[in-house]
Specification:
Number of helices: 10
Strand content: under 5%
Helix content: 55-70%
Radius of gyration: 24 Å
Order of helices and strands: HHHHHHHHHH
Oligomer: single chain
Shape: globular
């Protein structure tokens, strides 16, 4: 990146050159602005990767709200706030004394990954259906993550429990393991997503009435399911 803008005649730092200028690279301007903030903002200089985690969670949640309930202006703003988090992390990483990388390295890595995972777009592979696209994606991902020994490797335990449950169930299905409640068809299964939401809320209400921790209850079940998955992946004993 270019050096940050020099101080003005008043002694105050100027904004990065050409911020907002017509035809300028808006993403480059944002990165340069982040660099100037890191250089000149005392609060920002004290922030590390771990300090940013709560803000990342908050901004991600606000983006979800904008997608599900907000206006187009809300969506644009929240995407910008989340982009700022990416730029912030990259600028912190750029100053690491042992293993530095910057936003350009992040962008190059992303571009390379997307090209690898879309051989039907950038190479000679063919994919005429979403299912065929997924086959190419999963094959490329498997090649990238060849050191992983379980389908559960890379699944973050920090995901919200319901999202984690859905993810683990998908991984479990890949090795032929299903949740106990899915091993028999239930006549009371919700018929729509709205019915599912109501059923989940009812279950949480039951947990509250009985003094149970719904979050803990689900995570305990997930740990059991994860143990089944890992057991299914182990080669049979001879």
């Amino acid at each position: 990146m270019d050096d940050a803008a020099s101080p003005t005649a008043s002694g105050l730092p100027s904004a990065p050159a050409e911020v907002g200028a017509t035809g300028a690279d808006a993403l480059r301007e944002a990165a340069e602005t982040m660099r100037a903030v890191r250089d000149r903002c005392v609060w920002t200089q004290q922030i590390g990767h771990h300090d940013l985690v709560p803000y990342l969670v908050e901004e991600s949640a606000e983006l979800i709200d904008a997608v599900e309930e907000g206006t187009r202006a809300d969506l644009r703003e929240e995407l910008g706030d989340l982009l700022w988090q990416v730029l912030f992390h990259a600028e912190i990483a750029a100053r690491d004394p042992d293993d530095p990388f910057d936003i350009d390295d992040v962008a190059r890595g992303l571009t390379e990954k997307m090209v690898r995972r879309h051989p039907h777009v950038f190479a000679g592979a063919v994919a005429n259906t979403p299912e065929e696209v997924l086959v190419h994606w999963n094959a490329a991902k498997a090649a990238e993550k060849h050191t992983r020994t379980s389908v559960l490797d890379g699944v973050s335990e920090r995901m919200p429990s319901l999202a984690l449950a859905q993810k683990v169930l998908g991984k479990a299905a890949q090795v032929g393991v299903s949740a106990p409640s899915l091993r028999e068809e239930s006549e009371d299964a919700p018929g729509t997503e709205a019915d599912l939401g109501a059923a989940l809320l009812d279950l949480v209400a039951v947990a509250r009435a009985r003094g149970w921790d719904a979050e803990r209850a689900l995570r305990v079940q997930l740990r059991g399911l994860e143990a089944e998955v890992r057991a299914a992946e182990r080669p049979p004993a001879h």
